[in-house]
Model the fold of this input.
Amino acid sequence: MIKVGIIGGTGYTGVELLRLLVVHPGVELSLITSRSEAGRRVSELFPSLRGFVELEFSSPDDAALKACDLVFAATPNGVAMHYARGLLDAGVRFIDLAADFRIKDRITWEHWYGMEHSCPELLDQAVYGLPEMNRRQILDAQLIANPGCYPTAIQLGFLPVLVQDAVDPATLIADAKSGASGAGRGAAVANLFCEVGDSMKAYGVAGHRHQPEVCQGLDQVATEKVGLTFVPHLAPMIRGIHATLYSRVKPQGMGQDFQALFEKYYQGEPFVDVLPAGSHPETRSVRGSNTCRIAVHQPEGGDTLVVLSVIDNLVKGAAGQAVQNMNIMYGLDETTGLHLPPLLP
Amino acid sequence: MIKVGIIGGTGYTGVELLRLLVVHPGVELSLITSRSEAGRRVSELFPSLRGFVELEFSSPDDAALKACDLVFAATPNGVAMHYARGLLDAGVRFIDLAADFRIKDRITWEHWYGMEHSCPELLDQAVYGLPEMNRRQILDAQLIANPGCYPTAIQLGFLPVLVQDAVDPATLIADAKSGASGAGRGAAVANLFCEVGDSMKAYGVAGHRHQPEVCQGLDQVATEKVGLTFVPHLAPMIRGIHATLYSRVKPQGMGQDFQALFEKYYQGEPFVDVLPAGSHPETRSVRGSNTCRIAVHQPEGGDTLVVLSVIDNLVKGAAGQAVQNMNIMYGLDETTGLHLPPLLP
Amino acid sequence: MIKVGIIGGTGYTGVELLRLLVVHPGVELSLITSRSEAGRRVSELFPSLRGFVELEFSSPDDAALKACDLVFAATPNGVAMHYARGLLDAGVRFIDLAADFRIKDRITWEHWYGMEHSCPELLDQAVYGLPEMNRRQILDAQLIANPGCYPTAIQLGFLPVLVQDAVDPATLIADAKSGASGAGRGAAVANLFCEVGDSMKAYGVAGHRHQPEVCQGLDQVATEKVGLTFVPHLAPMIRGIHATLYSRVKPQGMGQDFQALFEKYYQGEPFVDVLPAGSHPETRSVRGSNTCRIAVHQPEGGDTLVVLSVIDNLVKGAAGQAVQNMNIMYGLDETTGLHLPPLLP
Amino acid sequence: MIKVGIIGGTGYTGVELLRLLVVHPGVELSLITSRSEAGRRVSELFPSLRGFVELEFSSPDDAALKACDLVFAATPNGVAMHYARGLLDAGVRFIDLAADFRIKDRITWEHWYGMEHSCPELLDQAVYGLPEMNRRQILDAQLIANPGCYPTAIQLGFLPVLVQDAVDPATLIADAKSGASGAGRGAAVANLFCEVGDSMKAYGVAGHRHQPEVCQGLDQVATEKVGLTFVPHLAPMIRGIHATLYSRVKPQGMGQDFQALFEKYYQGEPFVDVLPAGSHPETRSVRGSNTCRIAVHQPEGGDTLVVLSVIDNLVKGAAGQAVQNMNIMYGLDETTGLHLPPLLP
Done:
């Protein structure tokens, strides 16, 4: 049994991580911290977990955390970096579900996250936890930077064609739609039911933190520098990301069977499902599950490739991917605790 | 392994039953029938089940059904009754998720369901599959009438106080709010997104089929004839029933500790959760799970008792309860395959 | 032209009041105050009003307010009472959309609102602005207490039968469902899209401020002391209240034609619409409009009367009713500026 | 007063047209036809219109229609073309809210709409009713092809930059998200609340009827042949289209002030609102109104231009634009009956 601790379990990512871990056969949940809720039973804050978890939230305590095998941080950005050095030195493996270790370049990170990084020397050591890209490094990782939700959906959709050099990396467009849980559980007028409901809007068109994260990942496989226009949108739904990805097919790519290319690329991947030709994945088809479903279209056989990629932002885009990383790190079957049919309708 | 067949798996109850059965460790799913979708892969109609079920829908075939140990009917009302005799005679156990065997009195049934019953002689034999009431009879049942969604939420909320004779059975009120999945997956203008969304309405105030079903159940435990005013409402949500139950405390019931009464009554029940005093259960706290959560209030210590009872109409109100019944019938732990944390948010 | 000022226009009640006033032919909007948004254009905060209002929010300024003919307060509870004396002394008429003057009994008010009342001497003078009850007093009123949203829907549903002494006033039940805009535009976790969406819950079962307000109103017409059990619910919709009202028909009321009773009682009322027998009003049928739609049912001819009453909580339950009161106060046709078809779908 | 008839008023476009016309000061509503609902009161089908319209639906009757000044068709595609010749010959002006006269090229129309056109000789005569493009021709038109909802949002967003030759017309991308009312009021499983709710999906990626309509319009102003990739999405909301438009800035366009370009282009347009630089329009900011709000972004000053364009699909995308066309045709102020603040929240 892996002895697990969670730092910061009061947000949506935290409660989702709990949902997955409390029925994971290889995990013993040891502690879960929250400064604001210390002393309160987890199941009081989240009655959905009554009968599944008896723990109380505790104040962050170094000794208790260091007694764990593995610690997850489900905190706001900028918190995990203050725990990382201590935990790693104590031999505790660490998965950060926030963004502290996602960007390798410190200057870029500090620009987008608006703060100084407290342990930039760990940025190189951190493994970007997208198993479909970095499975081998994850196996031995001590420190995992769990990918962002948009970056997961977008990278999985672009990877196959960039690896094959079939599209122009310089003119990528990602038009992504996210459910409101992506904005977190913080009290903010913009996330009220009456602000989000029955409406759509784009946001962050001038620039969004997930853009450099995607570019960093895709640059590793692309033949040329990646140029990405990323426009996120807020949709009136709770969970789900629908990324609609546009790229220009290179002359040498015309005539290629993109359906076959995607199917071959993701063959054997337990959590990427390439749908039959002509499909349109719905976000609800992955609700509550760790699967990314992808469909590929080349409208009228032209030179614009359209890839549709959907995930549950809280699962494959956060907590589920973190558990997948844990499974890999501990040599478990990668699907352990994650073989859950989506909830539909 | 229980060899299971499903008649009629294209509705919401059917796909929910599939979601539960495909990960149930004691079940081998043998066939699933649909006249309209015969020959089509189940996972084509429900992409959420890709990777979980390889079956195609098949035309209803007597021989194949009779080769099963257990058959579930997830059909519209009036279909299961035509299969029951044949299956039972062949030694196949049968759980009807529709209403064909819920009402013991043939005349009442025919009045509310507007058709002749094809096998009224089975009505007596059928066991009403509410485990919290009839667990022992379910154990040996060949034919189970799986309760309706509203009746499940309402009966579980009224049972303890009627058994204790603490409230007046003649003046019960059940004001119930249901998500739209309760209306099924049939094409109907009234169930369109733009008709249901961002609105509330009552329906069937003049009379609803679930009223006699509830009265039949409660009459078994009440000291006097039950009188129930039942007003169902359609709420703009997908899953969930919230039953708000009003009753008049009898003089001998005044002063009683209703919180303790409920906690004691449901002690040990795996799927009824009595919340702490002062709670207000949310339907989402049981989304995707087989649990019924109940809270008890006596506003200002007066003689009106208010019980709040929530379930997921597709799980405890349909498919999950059917699986619970199956577990009991086959001597499995009652929670087998049903120990699933709700999906929240 | 009535020169109008608004105190506190940044909440949902405020923006709704603006929506109605900017196209009202008899109104000149003079100023709108907000401490937090002073100096910002109203249409910047609410882009829906671009082209309709050029004003900026201003800091509350006594002189400017006193230069108005009429001031509306769309503030949180406990603010309007600090303006009332000054405005009235300056000859300015005042409509409070919050609760400061709704309850005549100071002790009761202070109990439910948890603060000391700053001008209890005005409580008597304030007219409760439910035109269907107090039209004549409204005409000459200097100070209007605009009713709460729940109390509007509930009182309009109970009034006819209490006036006729047809039901028992001591055992009323109001099971009410409200959209989330009723909770206001404040930043609170409980009102987030992901907390409210796809779920239902009751709240305040132990006691809610609107209960004494309803009782105070109904006591004026009932033959005996009113006893009311009031259970409010939060529904996953933006606007709308659906009140489901239960009462026991008195022996002398049995046999009465309740449909005719309601139709007669509300004959000529511009904003109460009694639906044909057998109807089930939807909240969306009044979305954006000042109408209250009512249907009356007597299930199976029994002694429980069920009245369904729907309003838009922001219009008839708040801003629209305030405008209706203004129209009456200034001798305008009562429907001026309010003759708006609901938005459906 | 313009004597108006409506053919086919039972869909969402029809009821929206009614909402606008019943309060239009220049219109006398003469008849509204529906084969399926003939003899039923309009306000029985749509209780939101109680008190606003006393008409019954009538069977389509040539004489009655020919007695009108103006007839609107709010029918499915392929119906209006059978009325057009007769009405025009009788001197009745005709606005088709469906697609029968939108495409000038008969072959193209028949390809996309899958039927033979019954009066192709009228295609040339029909004026495409986008006032911002064709105001002068609308003035004298006898036959108006009211634009599609997507084409309205998309063309208004691309027009200014194509007219100025600032972007490459060959590589346009329109990623559009629509509320479910765009799919109409027909009974279809795909449009059920439980299918659409809490989910997003793309559809018609291989080809959509609105693509050639947009290209036809933009080709009139572009310097080169327009190439458009159009991906529509279904969003879990009732009303609203959010079009996110991508184009490549031409070398000569770099350095241009696109904000100023848009503001100048739409200066004086009553129903196009160019938002301040940096804005992100929400669909709810136009809910119930005839306004199109547009924002322009050039992320990081690169060569990808991003235009955000939102409309209410039932108003500016259908019924409101039809009324705007009527106003122009009859020399009324273009905003008559359309000066309505959006409903927010």
Q: What stands out?
A: Residues 187 and 206 of chain A are 24 Å apart (CA to CA). Chain A has a mean pLDDT of 97. Residues 2-125 of chain A form a domain with the Rossmann fold fold (CATH 3.40.50.720). Chain A touches chain C through 20 residues (CB under 8 Å).
